[in-house]
Design goal:
mainly alpha, 18 helices
Length: 411
């Protein structure tokens, strides 16, 4: 007899997501070291970073198509194998290509975790999907906080980056064991009796396509800024990684209290407010310096806090027939957008540094640092355009949903 242990499955999912986040937070903290140790350009670092975001959409989209066929358990065992392989290869990396391949493997693992865990959480908590998805996704910023604090602590006692990466093996082994031993339910779509044709039709609906495109913007605003904060603001503040720690710390608290906020303002209302606050936060990050930049990080953290889980929660609630495929296509869209944007902006950042350097090739360290302190905030100001566009998009979404509800009630 199959026994579904809902709470154990939920906490195992949270642990798997924490490994995903640790990979993000630790990589953000060691980015400059990797560049120095392996003599990599910012553009090369951008390609390595993007590899995680390529692997993620590849895995999450493929997972979306096969999860109903092979089941969520097999996907999560695969995620465990990819995580373990990627982490070990990173520890023993010898240069650009081993870093690229290991990061790609970790990205595939991260995407596989979300491909299985998003529909798993939605299936476990069918009556409270958006709130529980926020609770699940608080372990992404939570893991980043843990990862960045680990980097700071281990750097302080002069522990190498290889050991910092190897720390991820412990929670990986734990979640792998838990998922291997637990029984799983079928996905919500299968349990509800929606056909595969219903799923594809829902995934091609105008509302789904609109949310798919919006996910490009919400993901770039949150994840590009977080992943690149150490590089972009290294010469603006003495502790750029603490900005990421503060931002993600705010996100942990915010997602923990998602329930009353989502119920009070609705998923689409939360998305609109998030776009407004994220725009203000990104503007402040690009203009403030010194200790005042930590206030900007606080505002930005509040802004991006609900983006990812509420986008997925909105699709789960308003387009339920799209099933696991719909949830995973949304996640894949976000990570694909970040991968493309990271490459583009890595190259643009290098161009901006050259632009702000004095004429000639004998630039001093002081001149280089000055050029970087101008280039980083300019990249953030360019990125600011994205959440401003989202304000317009989510205003339209709120009007559409409100009018749809009025028609339904006959008001």
């Amino acid at each position: 007899m199959i026994t579904i242990e809902r709470n154990k499955l939920f906490w195992a999912s949270c642990l798997a997501l924490m490994v995903t986040a640790l990979s993000f937070g630790i990589r953000a903290g060691i980015m400059n070291k990797l560049g120095t140790n392996f003599n990599l350009t910012t553009e090369q670092l951008g390609v390595i970073t993007a590899a995680a975001f390529w692997g993620f959409p590849l895995a999450i989209i493929v997972g979306g198509f096969i999860v109903d066929i092979i089941g969520m358990k097999k996907l999560l065992v695969m995620a465990f194998i990819f995580h373990l392989a990627g982490i070990c290869l990173t520890v023993f990396a010898t240069g650009y290509w081993t870093l690229f391949i290991s990061t790609l493997l970790i990205g595939i693992a991260n995407g596989t975790v979300e491909a299985a865990c998003n529909p798993l959480v939605a299936s476990l908590f069918t009556d409270n999907k958006t709130t529980k998805l926020n609770h699940f996704h608080l372990w992404f910023p939570g893991g980043i906080v843990i990862g960045t604090l680990l980097v700071l602590a281990l750097n302080y006692i002069n522990i190498g980056w290889q050991v910092q990466v190897a720390v991820m093996i412990i929670p990986t082994l734990i979640y792998g064991y838990l998922f291997y031993t637990l029984d799983f339910p079928v996905t919500e779509r299968v349990a509800s009796g929606y056909s595969t044709a219903d799923m594809y039709k829902a995934a091609l609906s105008p509302l789904f396509i609109f949310m798919f495109i919006c996910m490009f913007g919400t993901a770039v605003t949150e994840l590009f800024t977080g992943q690149w904060i150490d590089v972009l603001l290294k010469n603006v503040t003495t502790n750029p990684i603490l900005i990421l720690t503060l931002t993600t710390g705010v996100m942990v608290i915010g997602r923990g209290f998602a329930g009353p906020i989502v119920h009070r303002f609705s998923p689409q209302g939360v998305l609109l407010m998030s776009a407004v606050v994220a725009s203000i936060g990104l503007y402040l990050l690009s203009t403030l310096t010194g200790n005042s930049i930590f206030f900007a990080a606080l505002v930005f953290g509040v802004g991006v806090c609900y983006f990812w889980p509420t986008m997925i929660g909105f699709v789960a609630e308003y387009i339920p027939k799209s099933g696991a495929l719909g949830l995973n296509l949304i996640g894949g869209a976000g990570m694909f957008a970040v991968s493309v944007y990271s490459i583009f902006m890595g190259k643009h950042y290098d161009e901006l540094v050259l632009k702000y350097l004095p004429a000639g090739n004998q630039a001093s360290d002081e001149a280089l640092n000055s050029a970087k302190s101008l280039a980083g905030p300019e990249v953030l100001r360019l990125t600011l355009i994205i959440p401003i566009v989202l304000i317009v998009a989510f205003t339209g979404l709120n009007i559409y949903i409100r009018s749809k509800k009025k028609k339904k009630t006959g008001a």
